[in-house]
Amino acid sequence: MNIKEDLETYAKVEEGKSFSDLTTLHIGGLVRYVVYPDNLIALDGIIRILKKNQIPYKMVGKGSNLLASDEKFDGAVIRFDRHFNDYYIEGNEVIALAGCSTIALSNACMKAGLSGLEFSGGIPGTVGGNVFMNAGAYKENMADILKEVLVYLDGEFRWLSKEKCDFSYRHSIFKEHRDWIILAARYDLKKKPVEEIASLMSQRKQRRLSTQPLQYPSCGSIFKNPQGYYSWQLIDNIGYRGKRKGDAMVSEKHSNFIINMGRAKADDYLNLIQEIQEKVKESYQIDFVPEVEIFNWPEKKK
């Protein structure tokens, strides 16, 4: 049986890709299949084929919050960013498909005079990924403006209310149910003058450019802020600003970013994360929790 041919019944399928091609960090091993469904029927068909053949799968948007190992992933990566990227504006409500760029969506809402997504104007990735982790900035997050989420689960398409999504700081119910696939999100926004929204987004863009190492591949912020602390302060206090393992380095510009200086290996990157966790635990008795998702690693190394 040719599984690739079966998958191609429903979508374009690529072979020979690696997570280094599929993530903003540019790190990670080969992937057996990369699949690009263009509608809900195609997605349903793809999932049925993968489950029938017991092939693991992983949803990946822009890969902006993902650290994959350098080992081969003998499964399928399903990507929405080519086709599931439309959005619809109806009054104060916005519905965006999971593959829609969050930055593009925030700019579209700004032009429509809709306020609420300003905080996400610099958050890379897609709607699906940012709902999954309840992404946020400037003390705001996705849960603040979400109304409901369209999900594929148990072979059905369902709208889940925000209350059923168990949102908290960088968390959602989807982290406990990895087989639930986020398809779209409905936002409840507020009318404001376009100039006011644009001004705030411009100020924040300048702040990001001046404080974040955007010229290097990274996953964005590595660690969640523990209660009462900023992560970068803890990393500075243990002396790890500028710390380097191979081509993985704690940024001199913003120490809660670990950047890829060229050809960083996944092991070096993960070892640097774990070393920081150990030092912070020793010094502050704090469990330093990563925001970044660590994927396709032997259990003993996580």
UniProtKB/TrEMBL annotation:
> Could you tell me what reaction this enzyme catalyses?
UDP-N-acetyl-alpha-D-muramate + NADP(+) = UDP-N-acetyl-3-O-(1-carboxyvinyl)-alpha-D-glucosamine + NADPH + H(+)
The question of whether Cell division is a record keyword is answered with: yes
* One Pfam family this sequence matches: MurB_C
Q: In which pathway does it act?
A: Cell wall biogenesis; peptidoglycan biosynthesis
Query: What positions does UniProt annotate as the active site of this protein?
Result: R170, S221, E291
- Keyword Cell wall biogenesis/degradation included in the entry's annotation: yes
What keywords appear on the UniProt entry?
Cell cycle, Cell division, Cell shape, Cell wall biogenesis/degradation, Cytoplasm, FAD, Flavoprotein, NADP, Oxidoreductase, Peptidoglycan synthesis
Q: Name one GO molecular function term.
A: FAD binding
Residues in FAD-binding PCMH-type domain copies = 26-192
Give the source's domain of life in one word. Answer: Bacteria
One annotated GO biological process: regulation of cell shape
Q: Name one GO cellular component term.
A: cytosol
- Chief place of localization: cytoplasm
| EC code | 1.3.1.98
HAMAP family associated with the record: MurB
Annotated function: Cell wall formation.
Q: Which family does it belong to?
A: Belongs to the MurB family.
Task: Check the record and name the NCBIfam families matching this protein.
Answer: murB, PRK13905.1
Q: What is this protein called?
A: UDP-N-acetylenolpyruvoylglucosamine reductase
